[in-house]
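--- STAGE predict ---
source: upstream dedup step, 1 unique chain passed
mode: sequence only
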Amino acid sequence: MPAVAILGDINVDLTLQVAAYPPEGGEGIAERQMHGIGGSATNTALILARLGQPVRFIGRTGADAWGDWCTVEMAAAGIDTRWISRDAEEPTQLNIVVVGASGERTMFSYRGANVKLGADDVKPAALAETALLHLSGYALLKAPQSNAALRAVDLARTANIPITLDIPSGIAGAIGPAVTGLLPEIDTLFLGELDAKLLGSQGQQATLDAAAHGLIEAGATNVVIKRGAEGSVLYRKGQEIHSPAVKVDVIDTTGAGDAFAAGYIFGSLAGLSVPATGALANVAGAIAASNLGPSASAVSRDALLDGISKAGIDPSLLAEIQPQIRR
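--- STAGE serialize ---
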């Protein structure tokens, strides 16, 4: 099975669950604490690897204990870590993730070694004979990491490798020009509704349809909009396919979009229909949102099989999805 190449952040997440945020200068006592490997691209990579999809990861950590731990854990999950470089000056990224009563997360990060990934770190061999290149929008925030992302796009396009780009919530404004320039190169764009309206140049008062079509007119081939409790929608020229949401008790939204992207990529590469792919992605995102901490630890074959069986998915789609997860 051809591998998926993934480029993006590697970090350690320290997650704190709080009943309420304290005022500035106050003190918040967490009800729960946990830590794990995080990073939008890393979450997606770990989930794909757990589903049996070969993954190659292109990234950078510090030459420190956290970097050692992340690399060892990723390799243990089956990820090819040969293209993870180490930085002697900057540390491995640490995220402090504070989860409030609604399940929404607030993140404080020092991006550290991730930003130091350069174009020279992206080797043609990392993408050779791969099925797909997946990028996290975080990689477009700042050079030299953004140069590494552009280098990967150039290599992928030269080799006719499809490219997907996931825009995590909260950064669309910062990477808007970079995304606009890349849209003609992107086969599938994943993003939230508010970010679609921002990047589609339609304004927050625009309809979802107008925003999506604005992105398509700007060059995107497939636009997949993540709508949380409203499910998801795939837009492509002349086509609009809605996938209904999966009802769960939201505990922590950290990584839900990363899990969604993993489910969508897995379904697409497995040859599932668009409705089946959307259903699988929605279930993956829902599983992540209903667990505290890094999403990759919650989304597994067994969790997906259990989730799709309880999600009220059309039986024909269920019959399409289950054999691919079990393979």
